[in-house]
Amino acid sequence: SATAFSQGLVVHTGPCKSSPSPLLLRHFGPRPRRDGTVSFMPTFAATTTTTTTKLYRCLRKARFLSTRVLLSSSSSKASPQEVSTDTSCATTANTSVPNGIGGLPQYGIGSIDLTQKWFDLVKGGDVVATTSIKDPDATVRYGIRTVNIENDGSSSSAVADTSSTSIACMEFVEEITDHANEGTQQQSTAAAHPRVQQINATLSRMQSSISSASSSSQYAVQYERVGEYAAQLQLVRTLRPPPSAGFAASGGDETTCHPPPYDATADSFVVGRFRLQLRPLVGAISTDDLSGLSTGWDIYHNVSPADSRGHYLLIPTLLERDANWRGQVLTRSDCIDLVVLTDSVHPAGSALISYNSVGAGASQNHIHCHLWPCPPIPLLGDGIDSKVGGWECYAVSKAEAVASAALCNEKQDNSEVAVSLLDYPVCCIKLSSTSTIHLGAALGTVIDAVQSMFDAPHNVGLLNRSDGGVDAYVFVRSRERSPRIVPGSRCGSSEMMGVFHTSSEDQLNELVSDEHQDSAGDEAKGAMETVLRDVSYEPRDEVWSQILKHLHTSMK
Fold first, then answer.
1. Both ends of the chain: CA-CA distance in Å?
2. What is the pLDDT of residues 108-166, one digit of tens each?
3. What are the C-alpha distances in Å from 496 to residues 196, 248, 312, 427, 550?
């Protein structure tokens, strides 16, 4: 019952008919929501792992995981009389995404509609986090919320006449000044901290310029384009949690791709106030859902999204603790899974799946990947109805090959995997195929070579195409940051693909400057291209040669 569940304990013998053993459920919560409700996320203790897994899947299908218990406005605890029996999942609300909701693009993975999920998360006040800042000390809340956009471009969080407004998902930051009511609507949020005031002033300026027109102007994002590259201002993301120990390389120092030893007691994904168990489970893709997966994958929202239209974390299911509670290192099985997952993205090219190793943008030492809609906002151009597919919108996707090879799998069906070294500022190996399993195996071989032979930080970006194929881009690097241009900014997979995230307008202006030279000093380059050259592993011919040998050996 919801009452027993709210008290943290339920003994359950069904609905898994094949598993009669009692199961003990306990929650991590409660976790207050901004709308006055509380979300409980249970974990399971069972006599067998099989029993736990079966019940977990049944509960997911029954939408039982994000049980919401309505609290009385006059009490912070729920008595049995105050507990609602509503067990609907916050991320599976019946409200459909309205037409023109801030131009949210349609994108999904497997059978999961990620557009609808994001809208429900934002409307439910889930894409919100709190953090502490200094000079002076203050607690702030930040995230994404929905606002009403008038036809004249003005915005308001108040309920408005929907005939003359549209809804947009926008960033916000506010200072918490009443800790007694933290997480509730009664809380005072007057901004006094200089940093909060500065961020809000910029956000206000950007948000006041949006319109409901069908163009990139409907997004409250400041960006600049230089050729095929783009730089985007992201102020709220600067408030995200600090990186794990050993993940913060200094300046432009060369780095390794191997993280510190994994320690579950220090893993922010499973312990602490940002642990995943406190977030609504957006979706789960099991080995029964997609053929070729080696393990199930869970989907959670990122507490510090890089895109107001959606930013998700893909995590190998936490149910399999022995196999999946591990550090940020890709395995061969992970690579196959990522290709299979990418192949299930719909519409084709509508979402980028990416991976950052330590020394290449990763900040947390738990195996995870990212997913956000594609094309990114800066690459939408003047209209969102461009015929350019998401798989060909990035700068790297437009790069030509300087060397290539076609690999056939002689062990099975001779499926071909095309491998290329791209003419691109950072060392990049592109792999393409219509065979997900063989492409995944080839990607695993390339990643193994990068890790074992070069110990090089690396990123992976994956996009599926309308012809049924998948493109995987592997960026082989020497360092996390450029020592010359915005040295305080880490570069991850987005930057490698060609879209840079900046934390200040000064950084944005520096990145769009053309007063830089490449690392050899003999050819003028734009700043963003120079950054990519600065972090590249060289000589790339050696990387290409060794990877080809590794691939030919593995494919025989």
1. 57
2. 999 999 999 999 999 999 999 888 887 788 888 999 998 877 655 555 554 444 445 67
3. 30, 18, 19, 10, 24
